[in-house]
Amino acid sequence: MSQSTSYWLRLVRAIDALNEWVGRAVSWGNTLLVLVICYDVLMRYVFNRSQVAIMEIEWHLFAVVFLLGAAYAFKHDRHVRVDVFYANFSAKRKALINVLGILLFLIPFCWIVIRSGWEFTSNSLKIGERSPDPGGLPARYLIKSAIPLGFLLLLLQACAELIKSFLILLDRSHPESPSQP
N or C: at which end does the chain have fewer Cβ atoms within 10 angstroms? Predict the structure, then answer.
């Protein structure tokens, strides 16, 4: 294995490890989300009391799990894809399709969302945005910051998957490389 290949593999492992850690940590948000929803349902339908902050926590938790978990899903090939043809392709053909899809669609889209999401978050922070609803949550910029952060993690994972696909195309895949990048 060449020194340059070794460098790229270390980079891929570092990105994979980061998104694995974030994905596992964020997955606990699902448990928390279920508990908050159960509490909300109990309060609303049994005690006839509802709190705006609790409903906002529900969608904040969902947003964080979805946004920060996207890179984890991509790493584990659990994202949405039309597999009608792709499933029967060789590893090299899959790698080529992945390279094209990542370069033409995923990386530009991530860059656009990161850039606009950063401005969106920055403006929210500047004005001290909070929930417009009485009893809602303060610091709306915190949840908005999950947008550029989530897409940054997705962009990093896209780069890792791009490297894996290039290595397959160059016949430099290694035992840790999946047959389906």
Answer: N
